[in-house]
Specification:
Helix content is 47%, strand content 15%.
């Protein structure tokens, strides 16, 4: 039985009351301002100061004094935070003075790793470029990417050149999602003890290093763009696996790029969502050409229709917009069946599926060449 959130009635019914629907519409109308209000409260240490006050809370004047922000500035930000349920009101022991205390939503913004990764990724990577989302949808190109310069056609080419804070937020976001599933994925991938593993889109070598730590003899080849393979080589060497992790620089979409032949296993972690369905099939045809009949092809992806919680599906649907306006203009976070269909069109068959890996409900799909 599939217990995924998507199979609930959430996307099939419209039974919200009109007054609640109007409130939801106002949240959308003011979303850019409310986002920036929270960013300001984080940057100015206002939200953390409220949290540190504990159950006793803190008055507006005390908050102003501790943060160095005027009572006016503290006031407008905290009033908006009240409207967003980020903070709450309480009274002091006399019952006379109003105080702010942290709310559950505010605690999540300060302490929850998923929320922090999403928030700073949105701010440092997506916020400015999202203004051109409509142009991206019209052209199929990441029109928002120009906020980082006009040298690149996709964000992947730009990664090594991004400003340090933006780069950090991108990798924090990327690794937070995929890395959490690694401990559960490793025993599955190494069940048949592959000696040669091809890691396509290996990025900073985190998976390759994890493989070498898990299995003492495996040899891993990372396939990625030249800028990324340089980073991967350094990280592999720093981890002590320079002799077991090699790299192959190339663009998998380039007709001239041929993948290293006859691997025992192929690994693609949060890689295929970087491409359109047509491109996924094109890439998998290259994998098909390189693979042996018994090569295991593993695809690790967060599929938005295989999530347990509404917040998870929502986050993935929002991430699709990043791909549209910033990354490449034509990819997204996929549903289970559309991704499977694109892979199988290249000559593979789905032989096994593992869902709910890690706290972010990743899906690990195993394909082999069709007989």
């Amino acid at each position: 039985m599939d217990s995924s959130f998507y199979n609930s009635d959430k996307f099939k019914t419209d039974d919200i009351r009109a007054v609640d629907a109007k409130f939801e519409a106002q949240k959308i109308a003011f979303a850019p301002l409310t986002f920036q209000a929270i960013r300001a409260m984080l940057n100015l240490n206002i939200l953390k100061t409220i949290e540190d006050s504990g159950d006793a809370g803190i008055t507006r004047s005390e908050l102003s004094e501790k943060t160095g922000i005027s009572e006016y500035g503290v006031g407008v930000l905290c009033e908006m935070a009240l409207g967003m349920n980020v903070i709450k009101l309480t009274k002091d022991s006399t019952g006379q003075n109003e105080k702010f205390i942290i709310g559950k939503t505010g605690w999540m913004l300060l302490e929850d790793d998923l929320t922090k990764a999403n928030f700073y990724f949105t701010n440092d990577i997506c916020y400015k470029g999202a203004y051109d989302l409509d142009k991206s949808v019209q052209t199929g190109k990441p029109a928002g990417l120009k906020c980082f310069g006009d040298k690149w056609t996709t964000i992947y080419e730009a990664l090594s050149s991004l400003p340090e804070q933006a780069k950090k937020s991108w990798f924090d976001f990327d690794h937070f999602y995929s890395d959490i599933a690694f401990p559960e994925a490793l025993p599955i991938v190494f069940r048949e003890k592959p000696s040669r593993l091809l890691d396509i889109g290996g990025n900073t070598a985190k998976w390759a290093v994890s493989c070498c730590r898990y299995d003492k003899s495996v040899q891993v080849t990372i396939v990625d763009l030249p800028g990324q393979t340089a980073v991967a080589e350094k990280n592999a060497a720093d981890a002590g696996f320079g002799d077991r992790i090699s790299t192959y620089a190339g663009n998998v979409l380039d007709a001239a790029t041929k993948l290293p032949a006859a691997p025992d296993a192929v690994w693609m972690s949060q890689f295929l969502d970087c491409f359109s369905l047509h491109q996924i099939t094109k890439i998998l045809k290259k994998v098909h050409e390189a693979a042996k009949p018994d090569t295991n092809v593993f695809v690790l992806e967060p599929l938005w229709d295989r999530q347990h919680f509404e917040a998870s599906s929502y986050s993935l649907q929002a991430t699709s917009l990043y791909f549209t306006c910033m990354a490449n203009g034509n990819s997204k976070m996929y549903r289970f069946q559309e991704l499977v269909d694109a892979v199988e069109e290249a000559g593979f068959a789905l032989t096994c599926e593992h869902h709910n890996l890690g706290s972010n409900s990743y899906s690990l799909l195993l394909f082999r060449k069709k007989a």
